[in-house]
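Review form for a predicted model. The reviewer records the input and the model, then writes brief findings.
Reviewer: anonymous (R2)
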Amino acid sequence: MIEAAELVQTEYLNTKSGVERKELGQYFTGSAVADYMASMIGPVDTPVVRIIDAGAGVGILTVSAALRCLEMGNNQVHAVLYEIDGNAVAHLEVNMKHVARQFRKQAGKFTFEIRHEDFVLSRPDKTEAPFHVSSINPPYFKYNAKTSPYAGAAADLYKGNPNIYASFMAVVAACMAPKGKMVAIVPRSFTNGLYFKGFRHYLNQTMSLDKLHIFRSRDKVFKALSVLQENIICSYTKHRQVARIEVCTSTGYEDLNQVETRRYPAKLLIDTTNEHEIIRIPESAKDAAILQTVEGWSSSFLENGYFISTGPVVEHRTREYITTPDDKADSVPLLRMHNVKAFKTVWTGSNRKDARFRLLDGHEKHTLENQPYVLLKRFSSKDEKRRLVAGIHDPQTIKGKLTALENHLNYIGREDGELDLAEAYGLAVLFNSTFMDKYFRCISGNTQVNATEIRLLKLPTREVIDQVGATFPDGAESDQQRIDSIVNFHLKVKESAVA
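Model under review:
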């Protein structure tokens, strides 16, 4: 039956243009993923199981969830399905009737209601009886926090307007009965970052995270639609947080029957030591061991007295300041991402992307004192070899009283004065190490390296960082093996733990 529902879904999607799907945030789920999500639903102790589907599409997730309930012995199920796309409703009704027939064949009863309404704006948590099960693939798109009807639609549940999928998850969580189960396939972005801070707090206070599933390759889940967002499957239950959380891993959906499963203490994955409540996801046992090691460090980025900021030059707002490399009159080199390499910053003026920044009136808002900084590229991708790339900005190499940094770079300095170059090298060695890169990937699934995550990092003490820097003098070759050997030695990490 699930294969038939998927066929209906495919035929329906073929009638929609990519633009239409993007406007509605539609990325429908395949049958293998739908069945896998349904397998996360445990026994429900109630005479009639109530399922809510927050963005039903043609109903493939409810088909799997309802049949899972039937398989577990729950032979009376009622589903309430919300779908805003009127063109999908007829297909949805056909699939639900197929489910009802299957229940009747097994002496069960399946009933359903289809609501051609916007789930978030309808707020069924305020009008409906509680639900026991929800398997969802909500739409995801950003919306205007000032003009969109979604702005503030879930403000009574959490603060902020990060993305529509967060509102879907929050309202579903509010709909759940005690011990109700919510299984969702969503972008990983909610697990960290400032924008999702309020949502994470609500979710952590309302639900228990029981299981996470991550995909090693992010282009395998919705490959038919060329979606490169990093997605995870998460399973939540409406009760206090359980002590241990399962983390499952597969390459994509084709090997969901061969997942690797490990269990970790909840306190290792959910960081409750600060208000951000980041959810950390180790992809392997070695990653978890790295997390455990870092948790034992006695210091942190902020406790060490460092600051991190984003480069102040936003190019589309400062076009009149930006000029060609040969226009040297009253200008300074503009440092962009391509100028930052491991352990160095290179600006020659000969690269086609090189530019200078003119010191016109008002330049003070966009320029910095030319002093030592550690520069971190802000953008990378999951499938790139490294997430963290740290360069050194040395004022003796790129000279002048001022410097200009474009906003695709983060810069790190000291709160109490200039960053010593030896300490800057120590930080750069640490950030460029395999150990730190793996640690950072556990706490951030974003393609951006955001200042918020860096500020929250645990770090060795400044004394250790100085020792690392002293072992890696200015001009040393940045061989990865050498970098890792230095870091592993000073952090007392076994080579095999990060290999």
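Findings: Residues 222-228 have pLDDT under 50 and may be disordered.
Further findings: The two ends are 45 Å apart (CA to CA).
Recommendation: see findings above.
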